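On clarity, I found the account of how folds are encoded harder to follow than it need be. What matters is that the chain and its backbone geometry are given together, residue for residue. For the editor and my fellow referees, an illustration may be useful. For illustration, here is how one protein appears when written out as sequence plus structure tokens:

___
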Amino acid sequence: MLASGALEHDRRFALLGEDGQFINGKRFDALHRLRTSVDLAERSVTLSTDDGATGAAMRMFHLDADRPALEVWLRSYLCLDEAVRLAENSEGGFPDDTEASGPTVVSTATLEAVAEWFPQLSLAEVRRRFRANLEIGGVAPFWEDRLYAAAGQVVRFQLGEAVLEGVNPCQRCVVPSRDALTGEITPQFAKQFSVHRQRSLPAWAAASRFDHYYRLAVNTRPVHGNARQSLRIGAPLRILGTFLGGG
């Protein structure tokens, strides 16, 4: 976990337009169909538009020496009139929520419950769509709703060596409504999800944090001075209490 609270390498790279806005899956569903393989040791990225059927050729680029050519390739793939810039931030990445830039947390049972709401989706597909950083096992569905409190408060918890604060339930964007590999829309996904989420909201959840119910997983941040800790698979999670200072 870096000083910012982000996991090392998470969202380390971003595509930016000429106006400085992100070029991401929220705005361009074609990015779902882009396959990438990154080798940070070699500073290389391999790209392909192969979805398993088209057989498109792969292209490898060096992230430094070939960056102009990579940016031109991406611009062409996305059919953009404007230039594309590849940005890198190794110290904090490019989080959606800069006030709660720590890892997102969800439980395995929650993802299983969501898969039951949408029988056409596998558990693996639900994982790909919601992209949580940390998954908690051995707990009930929506257990992670214990990790935030009323506005102006945070829930502090220890995960192995690291101490984090749960800030709020994560507001979801259009991306989970699409097939993670093709970008195809699942009709009425957000609406159906919200209905199930409201019905399933546990008694322990801070209901006041839900201005709408298209929210899943918990946004976190590190406790001041507690960054650059290691997170390990199998580490226990212990809730330390509720404190002032939430978003």
Summary: The mean pLDDT is 93. The radius of gyration is 19 Å. The CA atoms of residues 11 and 96 lie 10 Å apart. Residues 67-78 form the longest helix (12 residues).
